TrEMBL record:
<dbReference type="GO" id="GO:0016279">
    <property type="term" value="F:protein-lysine N-methyltransferase activity"/>
</dbReference>
<dbReference type="GO" id="GO:0005737">
    <property type="term" value="C:cytoplasm"/>
</dbReference>
<dbReference type="GO" id="GO:0003676">
    <property type="term" value="F:nucleic acid binding"/>
</dbReference>
<protein>
    <submittedName>
        <fullName>N(6)-adenine-specific DNA methyltransferase 2</fullName>
    </submittedName>
</protein>
<dbReference type="InterPro" id="IPR041370">
    <property type="entry name" value="Mlase_EEF1AKMT1/ZCCHC4"/>
</dbReference>
<dbReference type="Pfam" id="PF10237">
    <property type="entry name" value="N6-adenineMlase"/>
</dbReference>
<keyword id="KW-0963">Cytoplasm</keyword>
<dbReference type="InterPro" id="IPR002052">
    <property type="entry name" value="DNA_methylase_N6_adenine_CS"/>
</dbReference>
<keyword id="KW-0808">Transferase</keyword>
<dbReference type="GO" id="GO:0032259">
    <property type="term" value="P:methylation"/>
</dbReference>
<dbReference type="InterPro" id="IPR019369">
    <property type="entry name" value="Efm5/EEF1AKMT1"/>
</dbReference>
<keyword id="KW-0489">Methyltransferase</keyword>
Length: 211
């Protein structure tokens, strides 16, 4: 019999698989019935292999609002490795600002022309139409807590910004953040949707609303 070599799932495994597919269908159904917003945090799930940890909804909203105020009317905002903030900014549809997302994870290319593939290992490997000093504020969250990652991301930030910088990284990076970007720690403490082992903080180089 040709079927002898075909691996068969046990009845228990098959039931578990069917349950998984059913839950997945229900989740998709819920998204549709609720008028699912493609920009909502969690619409693209975290990939821990890429050191992704999304902000809580409250933190993303706070940082997005700060970026809008700092950018000013008609301002341009760049989100470097900070997709949660980008998503929250896009939820504010119709507001008088523009935003783009620089991100390594190509799943975010679903956001169209505003998505720019970005690898911090090549900090200035950017599209020609991304002109130097063309953003009123750059908000960045380097993926790793290392000086090398911060230093390279800092090159990108300094290339993009007209001056204002909002950096989100670990509290242990305070000295390096000051060294590479001239930013100071804020009182505001960002939270993530899942608790991180490392204490996280925000840093700015301008008079912000985060104090």
């Amino acid at each position: 019999d040709d079927d002898d070599d075909v691996p068969q799932l046990s009845s228990h495994a098959l039931a578990a698989l069917q349950e998984f597919y059913l839950e997945q269908q229900q989740r998709e159904g819920t998204k549709t019935s609720q008028g699912f917003n493609q920009y909502s945090i969690g619409s693209i799930e975290e990939d821990w292999q890429l050191s992704q940890f999304w902000y809580s909804d409250e933190t993303a909203l706070c940082l997005a609002n700060e970026a809008v105020v700092a950018a000013g009317k008609g301002g341009r905002i760049a989100c470097v490795s900070a997709p949660s903030v980008y998503q929250k900014l896009k939820e504010q549809d119709g507001k008088d600002f523009s935003v783009c997302i620089l991100e390594y994870d190509r799943r975010f290319s679903v956001y169209g022309e505003e998505f720019i593939f970005y690898d911090y290992n090549h900090p200035l490997n950017l599209p020609e139409n991304l002109l130097p000093h063309s953003f009123d504020i750059v908000i960045a969250d380097p993926p790793y807590l290392s000086e090398e990652c911060l230093q390279k991301t800092a090159e990108t930030i300094k290339y993009l910004t007209k001056g204002k910088i909002l950096l989100c990284t670990g509290a242990i990076m305070e000295e390096q953040a000051a060294k590479h970007l001239g930013v100071k720690m804020c009182k505001f403490i960002p939270k993530h949707s899942r608790n991180l082992a490392n204490e996280f903080r925000c840093y700015v180089n301008y008079a912000s609303g985060l104090d």
